[in-house]
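Q: How do we represent a protein-ligand complex in a form that can be generated token by token?
A: Start from the inputs.
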Amino acid sequence: DAQVKGKGSLSFFRPEMDARYVEEQKLRAALRQAVEDEALQVVYQPMYTVDGSRIECMEALVRWKHPEKGMIAPNVFIPMAEEMGIISSITRFVLERASRDCAAWEQPAAVSVNLSAHDLLTPDIVGDILGILARTGLPPWRLHVELTESCFIDDPAAVSKVLHQLREKGVTIAIDDFGTGFSSLSYLTSLPLDIVKVDRAFIRDINHDPRQMKLLKGIAQLSRDLALRIVIEGVETQEQLQLIKENRFADLIQGYVFAPPVDAETATRMLRASGQAVAVKASRKR
Ligand code: C2E
Ligand code: MG
Ligand code: MG
Ligand code: MG
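Then emit the structure tokens for the protein with magnesium ion bound:
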């Protein structure tokens, strides 16, 4: 408010700017309300083994359906929530929901939750996470947390400490959107990581661009050498999948080629089917 009206420069103020500002404030108010009411949803996107036979993990992705505007993308409202200082409420909500859902699944798949930079610098984030796990009955080894390179920039030492503590309890640590940030690669060895999630930017043109092939080959080799598991995100086509398979670029695949994000009920069904697929294959072998 003060930012816009404060300078006494109303004469420079164009009406359409004012309108946009009011819209933005309305959206923020609606988001605050949705968070308070716990009106957000959580959907799940499976990470499959490369052959598509088994789901190892489900990524929890938050959804916000605005009462009038419909679905708002997390790429829009997550940064907003970070600015508003309410991201930790969203994180806690998603963690709680995801842990509860995962604990109820009959299959021992893991669930993966995205953390924001701010979350990792919240005092006692480790205690909060362990508290949620205890309350929901999910063993720590079934929780993955995903962080982006931007999480390390502000205070790498503090973040490293948090990750070590989580990992000591059995939580799996994944680096998300790998290769899209600006941080140095040295964190790959200095931080306690388990999984590299390669951003879809690295596979989008893989079937047409030989340089992209080489880049992905390099990333895969580096990750292997560092004993990190590789998830490739955003795999959309059979052609991409085929190349990834042939070159052994990934351990797990997350993308529309196998499944989009789905609601919790569908996720439960997919997990059941995923277990059966393995059982059928195993029995055929005998
Ligand atoms: P992300 O963590 O990298 O999640 C993957 C995004 O890629 C998801 O978008 C997913 O729907 C999309 N995706 C998956 N497969 C494909 C594919 O084959 N093709 C294409 N084009 N896209 C695919 P979504 O759900 O819109 O989320 C966007 C981003 O918002 C996430 O990127 C993550 O950074 C953030 N986000 C989502 N949920 C949360 C959350 O609970 N907490 C935090 N802090 N961030 C979240
Ligand atoms: Mg993610
Ligand atoms: Mg990602
Ligand atoms: Mg992302």
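Residues 177 surround magnesium ion (ligand 4) (CB under 6 Å). Confidence is low (pLDDT under 50) at residues 281-286.
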